[in-house]
Amino acid sequence: MKKSITLLLVLALILTVFALVGCGGDDGAEGEELSVCLVVPSSFGDKSFNDSAKEGVENLKADFGVNVSYIECKGENFKQYMMQAAESADVVVPVGWQFYEVAQVAPEYPDTKFVWIDNVADGVESIPNLLCITYAQNEGSFLAGYIAATMSNTGVVGAVGGEDSNVINDFFVGYEQGAKYANPDIKVLTEYVQGKDGYDNPEGAKECAQSLHEDGADIIFQAAGNSGIGVFEAAKEGGFYAIGVDMDQKISASDYDDVIICSMVKEVGNSIYETVRKLIEDETWEGGRVWVADMATGYVRIAYGDEGSTQQVPDELKSEVEDLSQMIIAGEIEVKTTRQ
Questions:
Q1: pTM to 2 decimals?
Q2: Measured between alpha carbons, how far is 216 from 230 in angstroms, rounded to an integer?
Q3: Mind listing the pLDDT tens digit for each residue in 90-120?
Q4: Which is it for the CA torsion 271, 119, 45, 254, positive or negative?
Q5: Which range marks the domain in which residue 318 is found?
Q6: Is 14 part of any domain?
């Protein structure tokens, strides 16, 4: 009888120790049961849009112990990959317009939350497990255009887009408006990478940039994902300047620091991070709506690299850009947009 009692006490002690161990762990333990799947239309390694999204998810893993997974669609089967992700993930983050069928997929997986990056789904208000995040890239692009026009020696600046779409043209209308704000006589030229792989065709973007440079553009803004590397290559070879996009590409694409004068940053990764952080820490989810991440909230800005980066933009011009950003935030400058 005494042996039985002793055995029970030992077992109870062991169970207590295991329970205490289970309750311990690092500060990220509260998110370790949450799973997030990031789905991109092409692949990672663009040092721009997709990589920014991945950085945000990796930070969630580091800070909260979130289980993360990734799917690279490589240009096909977008709906199928979203559905595959939803089978096992608590939160699915499709990045890009290619995932427009999210409006059909999300209702089929009501227990899964979807965060669609950079687009708005029709009828999102009636889909409570879907949050759409768009960005006021027109505001940041206004500043990029102002810098380009101010620094141009030829009176011609250019821009290369991954495709001719509302999202890309939202960059370009802001860029042109900012350029003409600096110099009403500036000429702004644009080209788009041709074909279905417009965001993953550096050679095509390089040809676009070379063509724009031949037409006089001495500073070229790129909004073309992985294709944008081709713009930087053209700038390096042709002796002109470029403006990066989405991430601070003086850092993420540091091989081209000498030709990238600045970048128009969209904090894609941070917007994903903040959405999931609220879900973990505050247990809040604001689905069924569109969140426009803008300059006022710090999700759109101009970046010039870090202390080790080459600084081509004069301090006086940086100060002017900061003043303009405050005017945009205050509503004193209304930047054109293609957003609906």
A1: 0.87
A2: 18
A3: 999 999 999 999 999 999 999 999 999 999 9
A4: negative
A5: 137-266+310-330
A6: no
